[in-house]
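Box S1 | Example of a co-folding query
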Amino acid sequence: MSGRINWFPGHMAKALREVREKISRVDVVIEVRDARAPLASGNSRIEELIQGRPRLIVLNKSNLADTAVNRRWEKWFQERNQLAVFVNALKANTLKRIPELCRKMMEEKWAALKKKGIRPPPLRMIVVGIPNTGKSTLINRLTKRGAAKTGDRPGVTRSQEWIVLGKNLELLDTPGIMPPRIDNDEQGFWLCAIHAIKDQILGKEQVAAFVVENLKSGNPTLFQQRYQLETLDAPTEELLSKIGARLNFKKRGGEIDYLKTCNQLLLDFRKGLLGGHSFELPV
Ligand SMILES: Nc1nc2c(ncn2[C@@H]2O[C@H](COP(=O)(O)OP(=O)(O)O)[C@@H](O)[C@H]2O)c(=O)[nH]1
Ligand SMILES: [Mg+2]
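Box S1 (continued) | Returned holo structure for guanosine-5'-diphosphate
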């Protein structure tokens, strides 16, 4: 692949400055990534931004990834002593460990304060991550159970930006949004497939073709079944046209509506209807 795609016309520096400011106000950083690309969906500047604060990596959308690959990644993170949990933010029961682990990360510091006779202040946390990894969903799910705003407590900001999650546990109500950092086109394609980058950058046709190629070689079963494809042994564009025919996506003249087909394929894939698929594998 060439290096000529302009993945980021945007304002990386400003975005990072804003996240840094938010992070400076918390004790623990919850970094949400996408389980389908556990490293590429991070931002390599995160280390600088968190300035040594404890960090929990939450690999969300694990239901959309390949379960066996998730397990390999779990081991990969363990081996590197990086706390990481695989969750599905749409399922509240998978999220219980997050506040538990955040507390645990702070235990030592809290114990040291107590020893000195200081009552530890509430543990403050923030959710950060690149776009569309599920930050807002996670915040909503975490805060639904017994959530309360802290605006009327003395000494606490009145803008209601700290949400009480439990005893001595507070979460900033808005996430820190980090721009993705893309080192090569392959990572860019992964991030398009998982929709961390808008489809317009590559165009839906290219993103859909990339997804089809990956499913064809990596996770063909549900893909083939869903669109009742007799064979996958055909060029990608031909397969997409076949899918268009199956879905009866036709233009007025009877010609297959290729763009509509690509769009539908991406919708189906991103809903998990074509099965779980991981793009990035541990090395
Ligand atoms: N399948 C699946 N979808 C999720 C999960 N978490 C979030 N989503 C969906 O992903 C999309 C982006 O989520 P959102 O919370 O807005 O992401 P944000 O941009 O990081 O705040 C929404 O359509 C969510 O419903 C998950 O664990 N599994
Ligand atoms: Mg959001």
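Residues 60-61, 63-64, 88-90, 129, 131-137, 272 surround guanosine-5'-diphosphate (ligand 1) (CB under 6 Å). The longest helix spans residues 97-115.
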